[in-house]
Amino acid sequence: MSSLPKTQRSVQINAHGGLDVIKVVTDAPVPIPEDNQVLVKNAFAGLNFIDTYARTGLYLAPSFPFTLGREAEGKIAAVGKSIQDFKVGDKVAYLGVGALAEYTALDPLHVAHVPSAIPEGVAAAGILQGLTALSFARESYEIKKGDYVLIHAAAGGFGLWLVQVAKALGAHIIATASSDAKLAIAQEHGAEFLINYSTQDWIAEVKKITKDAGGGVAAVFDGVGKDTFDGDLEAVRRKGTVVSLGNASGAVPPFAISRLGSKNIKLVRPQLFGYIAEREEFETYAKEVFDWIIEGKVK
């Protein structure tokens, strides 16, 4: 490790707030991996909506300065004494805090070897959203062939992954977005029904589309939050599932849980790391994500 630099560039915040709190620091220390850590020299890093939550304080930083970023791809630059499954030079992608930096030290729990068949940069662009989409489609609500599924914000990074996963699983996908241009992107990725919630009554449109399928969708995947939650409870069918997975419009306010009872609605608020807490779980989903990329199932 003597050949490693002492300082690095990183993207940090020293307080929660607007865009002005983001700083590119040029003299952040390069971390020294502990015995049970790997040090990754990052070549590519993803930027995700969760970074906005971290910056604004919706998700509180444990301390300051705080380095942003939750996923990256690069090569192992150093390993701790206890590490056996990774060696210097291995190409990897990972989920971990502090990815928007030249070097990141982390526990190898959520570090995956990247197959040589995957082009440079693609793993960093897909591991967080890909694992989230696959695990939610398997475990938050198990999408089945023939299901009518509503995906809000379908043209976003996660939304496009979920559209493609749901299509591969045989679902009828109803996509919402704020513009026709965004809906066209969702359609290119497999959405069957398109609703512009800026100009259309999306609840009425969902009921019209599903009139012969129980009068509602089997599941709603909602990353919007406050602005769409009440409508989700109307748009889902009896015994359907609402997967509340994000807060793009703000957090869902407190509500009477008895509102779920009239249709026996299931409501879940999952987060990815609850599905990949064990190494075997992470490896299974990471392999599936990489296989889907290699096989061309996702763009």
UniProtKB/TrEMBL annotation:
Name the SMART domains for this protein. PKS_ER (SM00829)
Domain named Enoyl reductase (ER) is located at 17-298
Q: Which GO terms describe its cellular component?
A: cytosol
The GO terms describing molecular function are: mRNA 3'-UTR AU-rich region binding; NADPH binding; quinone reductase (NADPH) activity; zinc ion binding
Q: Which domain of life does this protein belong to? A: Eukaryota
Which InterPro entries does the UniProt entry name for this protein?
ADH-like_C (IPR013149), ADH-like_N (IPR013154), ER (IPR020843), GroES-like_sf (IPR011032), NAD(P)-bd_dom_sf (IPR036291), QOR-like (IPR047618), Quin_OxRdtase/zeta-crystal_CS (IPR002364)
Keywords assigned = NADP, Oxidoreductase
Whether Endoplasmic reticulum counts among this entry's keywords is no
Q: What is this protein called?
A: Probable quinone oxidoreductase
Q: Identify the species of origin.
A: Tuber borchii (White truffle)
